[in-house]
Amino acid sequence: MNILLTGAAGFIGSAFTRLALKNGNKVIALDKLTYAGHLENLNNISDKNFIFQKGCITDEHLVSQLLSKHEIDYVVNMAAESHVDNSISSPKEFIDTNIIGTYNLLNCSLQYYKTLSETKKLNFRYLQISTDEVFGTLGEEGKFNEDYPYQPNSPYSASKASGDHLVRAWFHTYKLPTIITNCSNNYGPRQFPEKLIPTVIMRALQLKSIPVYGNGYNIRDWIYVEDHCAGVYLALTKGTPGESYCFGGHNEISNIEVVKKICTYLDTARPLEGKKSYHELIEFVTDRLGHDWRYAIDDSKAQKELNYKRQFSSFDDGLASTIQWYFKNQEWIINVLKTKE
């Protein structure tokens, strides 16, 4: 299939690009290359079925041109502003990309869809990548699933929820074959160092303080990025239009526990002189505004309907693999940071 993948130069987008190409698809990668999207993530891809186009999903002419020129079968929207802290300080960028951008992609996809033959219409899919944060926060018990009500608590999650509602409306009103996927916290190689795990790894390796919000007991469900992408691909190729599918890692861990796991691993892999420990770098800071307490996902629907399975059932195994990647690729992250200065 010919896939228009937006946000392809990002952390999750680049992982999905590799999976889609491996499965024999043609990928037309569209990315604005903002601070979290960078060509370094795609540098080692030399597949003849890969085409990169710099541009924004709000560009109606460009999106329409790409759809028609490349005879797109699947649209996968991974383009998003995604960092909660940034959404609190600069919410407009999130409105522009996550809401206006989604609207534009939907509108262009619908106009293109109308031109297709009946056979091509049967195969066409528009897939929206969303987040578990649209569901709000959980207490000590329970998990999010596809039927959980939307209760976003940050500008980021509110913008993603808005995009999801537009996708649902385009299916029910215009019959555009859409699918929504919601995932828990991703981790793995090539994640931009604003998120928790790469921040801790890089600051520890640089012997800088490791900031932890509040008391660090906020809980997240962690999914390895390749496991998430495998679920998205299943939803795209086997999912039912109009449906949504949740993907989780079944790894509920508090933020402070994640930080301590990384420090413990580093104490063994890269021991400091003088019997010092990386744990000494941990510094508790003022809590984030509107900080959700707990996220967790029940992905039994995806397991049952899509035969979804995870490669990394153990968070420790996935974390070790991630840390080892950063060990080997410190120059990558330094270069990425330099290009964004």
Class of secondary structure makeup:
alpha/beta
* CATH fold descriptor of the domain at 2-188 and 223-250 and 291-311: Rossmann fold
- Residues in helix, %: 40-55%
In terms of DSSP E residues, the strand content is 15-25%
What is the CA-based Rg, rounded? 20 Å
Number of strands: 12
**Which architecture of the domain at 2-188 and 223-250 and 291-311 does the CATH hierarchy give at level 2?**
3-Layer(aba) Sandwich
Question: Key features?
Answer:
single chain; seven-stranded parallel beta sheet; Rossmann fold; 341 residues; three-stranded mixed beta sheet; alpha/beta
Summarize the structure.
Helices cover 43% and strands 17% of the residues. By secondary structure, the protein is of the alpha/beta class.
Q: What's the topology here?
A:
Blueprint: E1 2-6, H1 11-22, E2 26-31, E3 50-54, H2 60-69, E4 74-77, H3 84-89, H4 91-113, H5 118-123, E5 125-131, H6 155-174, E6 178-183, E7 185-187, H7 196-205, E8 210-213, E9 219-224, H8 225-238, E10 244-247, E11 252-254, H9 255-269, E12 282-285, H10 300-306, H11 315-328, H12 330-339
Parallel strand pairs: 1-2, 1-4, 2-3, 4-5, 5-6, 6-10, 7-9, 8-12
Antiparallel strand pairs: 9-11
Helix pairs in contact: 1-8, 2-4, 4-6, 7-9
